[in-house]
Design brief:
single chain, alpha/beta, Rossmann fold, Dihydrodipicolinate Reductase, domain 2, 2 domains, nine-stranded mixed beta sheet, six-stranded parallel beta sheet, 27% strand
Length: 351
């Protein structure tokens, strides 16, 4: 999903977008771990004044190789709290709350990678702080910025699917587990947030089962069942995640009464296939009618570049982010309910 296939065209579009408007923005990138280096690559290609902080001095080497001067590199981010306009926080999840709080209280705009925090009341405190200080707070819910996600959301809201009956997703693959959280906060949160975005609400009920196969004290496999309530009935959603399934799966299925779609986020361009399948009642029976299959072309834009562009745009224009603090709070609340459900074996209702 995070391939750089469309990088050149994406950067061309960015550079044609009134680069002068962004040229004076001073951005601090905080953290150069596995995902932080991807932020570095994208931010370095944007017309911003980039600073980088990383506690491990050896990890600053990629920034030097990209040509950033030593005067903009540090192992102590506090050196630049007062000097920058905004910060991009790509650090372990446990550090998000104190770091974001410090920058928001200093009057700086904040982009923080998901999860916003590991506890919903801390996420709410950050959201309230951003409102109090009139600061931008954007959460790194990257799937909201994939053009395929936008197409699906627009089609859902336009009624093309009819009544959305089922949302199904799989975010799995054989890889190294994260150390700062279990698989739900590491991976399931992506499609939990995406389904909240599609439906425009949080689920009313959450049920989850998890396993800790590696014995780390954190789940490494999970299956979430979410129920969204609407005027036309219940939409049932499932999110499957684990670190064991051979291959790499980033799939979402939307099943409606009039149309269904399968979206493979690993594909660079033709991610979505739609099926005009319907069940039609005839007397006491139902017929399953298979309709036309169509492929939907998605612009080859890198979602990480798109969300960082959106953040800088919000810093400049004060426009509310697509993935704001409230979205971060909602996703954490759902996962807290999922953890409670997995512990008790009961369905948890969200208020």
């Amino acid at each position: 999903m995070r391939s750089g296939g469309g990088m050149a065209s994406s950067l061309a579009r960015f550079n044609n977008h009134d680069a002068q408007e962004f040229s004076m923005t001073k951005v601090l990138l905080l953290g150069l771990g596995r995902w932080g280096v991807n932020h570095l690559r994208n931010l370095n290609a944007m017309p911003v004044e980039l600073y980088v902080a990383e506690v491990d001095s050896k990890r600053l080497e990629p920034a030097r190789k990209l040509g950033l001067p030593d005067a903009r590199l540090t192992t102590n981010y506090k050196d630049w709290v007062s000097k920058v306009d905004c910060v991009v926080v790509v650090t372990p999840a446990q550090t998000h709350f104190p770091i974001c709080k410090e920058f928001l209280e200093a009057g700086k705009d904040v982009f923080v990678e998901k999860p916003i925090t590991l506890i919903s009341n801390e996420a709410q405190k950050l959201t309230d702080l951003a409102a109090k200080h009139k600061r931008i707070l954007q959460v790194g819910h990257i799937f909201r910025f994939d053009p395929a996600s936008q197409w699906l959301r627009d089609a859902i809201h336009a009624g093309q699917f009819g009544r959305v009956q089922i949302l199904r997703s799989n975010f799995s693959g054989f890889k190294r587990p994260r150390n700062d959280s279990g698989v739900m906060f590491a991976d399931a949160i992506h499609f939990v947030d995406l389904f909240n975005y599609f439906m425009g609400k949080t689920p009313a009920r959450v049920f989850a089962v998890t396993q800790d196969f590696l014995g780390r004290g954190m789940e490494d496999a999970s299956l979430l069942s979410l129920e969204y309530k609407g005027d036309r009935g219940v939409t049932w959603a499932t999110v499957e995640t684990n670190y064991f399934l051979p291959g790499k799966f980033r799939e979402v299925t939307v099943i409606g009464s009039e149309l269904s779609a399968v979206c493979d986020y690993n594909v660079s361009q033709y991610k979505i296939k739609t099926f005009a399948n319907r069940h039609v009642k005839e007397g006491n029976d139902f017929k399953a009618i298979e309709g036309t299959l169509h492929q939907v072309e998605s612009p080859p834009e890198e979602p990480l570049l798109a969300e960082l562009r959106a953040f800088v745009d919000s810093v400049q224009t004060r426009k509310a982010p697509r993935a704001n603090g409230a979205a971060g709070v909602d996703s954490v609340r759902v996962l807290e309910a999922a953890l409670e459900s997995a512990k008790t074996g009961r369905t948890v209702e969200l208020k």
